[in-house]
Specification:
Layout lengths: L5 H9 L24 E9 L4 H13 L7 E4 L4 E12 L1 H15 L8 E4 L1 E5 L2 E4 L16 E3 L19 H9 L6 H11 L5 H6 L1 E3 L6 E3 L14 H10 L5 H13 L2
Antiparallel strand pairs: 1-3, 1-4, 2-3, 2-7, 5-6, 8-9
Length: 263
Amino acid sequence: MFSMDRLQSELQRLYLPQPSTGPEGNTGFADLVDPQGRVRALVLELARPADWAVLARVWTGVQADLGLPAPAIAVSGTDALQLWFSLAEMVNVAQARLFLESLRTRYWSDVESNRVNLLPALGGSASEAVRHAPLVPAAHAQTGQWSAFVSADLAPIFADSPWMDVEPSSAAQAGVLSRLQSIGQAAFAAALAQIGPDVSTSDVSNSKAVDAHSGESYPASDTLPDRSQFYLDPRQFLLQVMNNTEVSLALRIEAARALLSAP
């Protein structure tokens, strides 16, 4: 558990809903999802192997090609390297996955889908409406190995063992995060305008990914609405998703829930 220290402040600044909806010190993924199923943290994960050279394509590309701030780099504590993107404003699962799927298509078209995990994702049960990554840093329940944020110069050395054997220093973790910035709403929309049209909805809906933590296979993404509709206001976007018969039923239900809970 982590008290409200500098590390917790950095996690709150970058990734947790505003205000934090989870119990203080809880490191479960529920911390990253607000009661409406919205998120600020978007996680792209690469495993089997955790190849930094491949992950670096995205880390470098989003900065050089899209003008976005650098995402955090993390070792998962199991078998993967991760990129953690921070958004200044909350987005729903459909918007989050549109961004991540667009990055996957642009930079990883040659990477086997069973090596890739994109989070958040719709959960498989009513009690888990949205799945997300465990908050970093945290100890793996079975192995005791730790996930941790790492700097770009250290990331390559974790390719064969993407974990830490001991708990990382809270001060060091806060130091890594303190140099990062969130993606503003305008920058997020501009990035999607640049990369979104490259996503093929048929490829996305037919692809599979494997959860790096559970090993469970699941669709890499639900079919998403016309990319031009992303730029509507949030209520119009949700209506578009709910009324689009080409969108999966689970995502349409999620959009309806969000509309019903909206003020």
